[in-house]
Amino acid sequence: MKQMLFSLLFVIGMIANANYAIADTTDVNQSLIVPSKNTVLSSFTYDFTNYTDSLTLKAFGNGSLIFTWESVSPQEKYIGIKFKEHNTDKPWTENIVTAASKKMLVEDIEENMVLDLLIGSGNSAGNIVYGTEMVHASTLSETVFKSNQSKGKEEGASITWGIENDLLQKILTIYPQTKYVLKYNTKIGKKQNKSNPEKSPWITEDDISINKVSYKIKELSGGESYVYKIGVDTGEKIIWAKEGKFTAERTWGIFKLLILIGALGMFIFGMKIMSEGLQQAAGSRLRNMLGSITSNRIKGVFTGFGITSVVQSSSVTTVMTVSFVNAGLMTLRQSAGVMMGANIGTTITAWLILLFGFKVSLDSYAFIFIAFGAPLLFFSKGKVKVWANVIIGFSLLFMGLGALKDAVPTLGPDSAIVQFFVDFKDVWYGPVMFVLLGALVTVVIQSSSAAMALTMTLVGGGVIPFEVAAAMILGENIGTTITAELASLIGNVHAKRSARIHSLFNVIGVTWALLLFPYILKGISLFINGDPYTDGSAANTGLAVFHTAFNSMNVILLLPFVPKLVSLAERTVKSKGAADEEFHLDYIGTGMMGTPDLSILEAKKEVAKFGRITSRMSLFNQQLLTEQNSKVKTKLYRKIKKYEEITDRVEVEVANYLAKVSKGEMTEDTAKKVRSMNSIVNDLERIGDIFYQISKSIERKEELKAWFLPVQRASLLRMFKLIDNAFEIMCENLDADWDGVSLEAAKEAEDLINTKRNKMKEEYLSNLNDKDFNLESGMIFSNLFSLCEKAGDHIINVSEAVVGEI
């Protein structure tokens, strides 16, 4: 009996154990891991959510983990879950809830962990029996991706990401089939899909190897904005990274070409604004630097270098130099030294582009510089506004350079353009061809600095090889001479010769550099880190070194031969004679200078010359009074008419020039000088008209055969002598420093003219009573001395305008 009772209990125990095992074999679905065969839960799932900052919504490094299930065996009243981090010796954490709640919340748990789980059940909280097989869960979140970056490419994009290796290995241990998934959509498509899932579906790449850390998307719409998500797929759940975005670039075409031209335009505009601002900031000091040059060529080189370094434009220096030669303020020999120095000074631009454009991307900070510069525009003080232009121009310059780098096409080594340069760089005529290309680029965009920036950008982008870029830089040295040549076209012969010296200097330099081209490049590569033939960064450094070395060596080699260059320029630019040069606008004919101060200096010289031209008309009329030869008289009439036309033209040209000067930023003193000059040229033009009227009166006298009495002729000649004296004083005042001019002598000369006019009028009126007096000649006589007195009035007006009495 006792044996039968033990056997019965044994069978009951076996049945109970058998029932428990059956319960354990129930399949349970969960999102990450197929649950253990011996769990008592069905549809087991879990989800992890990061805690976030209530204000910024930034995710913290911990959060809540919630387990859920659909049903449990009726006899099980409580569910227990033990968990700990996978493959560690950390203690188990146990949570117990009622089975009917169908969920268990675990608070304040660390993110991005893989967890080992033991699931158990029981009739009471104190009687939980746990299964023997391990199941798993995780607290993986979007922060599992430690990096997630994208960059738009031509009609595509490159996505890169990263997960810490230790964590990735833990994931692979549990989920060996893990892979990456990428989905993307247009920005507009995302919104459409959200409102209607059937519209604009997300494009998914769902089979990316877990060993990859980047993926290239192709065949996108250029210029379109996209959003994307990268996720890690463990097989049953995808953990998505934070949403990213990019814009697919357009392929190289007319649109990208226009962007490149626009970027180049911004670079040139920024350079112009900065250069003009620096010139205005320097003011008359630039003029004083040029004015202090002696026959010492070396001093001229340093002066040219200094001015170009300050204004960051060799074109400004060369045009200024041509203008000074044109004005007679500088000899050809002196101008040669200045232009040589300008060539060295312009090499600083290449170093600035290299340092702030390629080594340090200053365009990233451009808006910060503008933030400091823009408020200065609202200051009333002129100098502060000038520095605002310098800062804003500097910022725009590097913004343009940054856009230029982005606009340059990304070409592979097999592209047709790259192959063209590669194919021709080694042929004997290749360097010559690329020198011509560099010269053409500079002539077209009229800026050697912009051409240099474009060349360095193309080298950095791998579009052109180092050797080709070096040859183009030589060509850019020739191309920049076109600025001086153009400036000299409307100047006198001396201005043309000065520009020719600049051209000869650069052409000769490029010639010897081409002959030694391979050796120069080989020497340059010894002085820089890296290989300029394969490394774009090293190539740009090499170009800056090459540019500086070439121009410096060219100056050293040709400086002793300045007299020869001058002689060659004189032989190649022939003078057409003094008469051909006499009536050119010698001082303002080369165009506006960089600053109002320098422009006013040129205008002052032109006005002084205008005064001397006008004074010659007095001598011509005196000759008419005494000349007997009809042919000579005819030539004098024509000459006076020609001079009258000259005075009309000069007045218009000077007035237009001063109007342009007035558009710039001017000091009060400069504005006062502009008003004075406008008044002066108007008076000088009126004097020209008066002397032309005098010549027509004399001509009418000849036609009427109305002869002057000797006493009348002598009286008129004395009046003309007084006019000449007033002219002499006026011209001295125009040539002098206007701030130190005195009106005393001019007023005395005016008083003498008025006194003489009054005396001649009395004589005329008394002669009217003489019955033998010729009335026709008397009227002409009266008209002539009245016109002379009017001329005297305008002459004193000129001197008064000089001192500001307008």
Summary, kept brief:
The chain is an alpha+beta fold and 806 residues long. 59% of the residues lie in helices and 14% in strands.
Describe the model:
This protein is of the alpha+beta class. Helices cover 59% and strands 14% of the residues. The strands form five sheets. Strands 5, 6, 8, 9 and 10 form a five-stranded antiparallel beta sheet that branches. Strands 13, 14, 16, 17 and 18 form a five-stranded antiparallel beta sheet that branches. The radius of gyration is 46 Å and the shape is elongated.
Number of strands: 18
Mean pLDDT: 80
Largest pleated sheet: 5 strands, antiparallel
End-to-end CA span = 146 Å
Low-confidence stretches: 1-38, 577-582
β-sheet strand percentage: 5-15%
What is the C-alpha radius of gyration, as a whole number of Å? Answer: 46 Å
Protein structure class: alpha+beta
What is the approximate shape?
A: elongated
With helices defined by DSSP (H or I, 4 residues minimum), what is the helix count? 27
Quaternary structure state of the chains depicted: single chain
Helix content: 55-70%
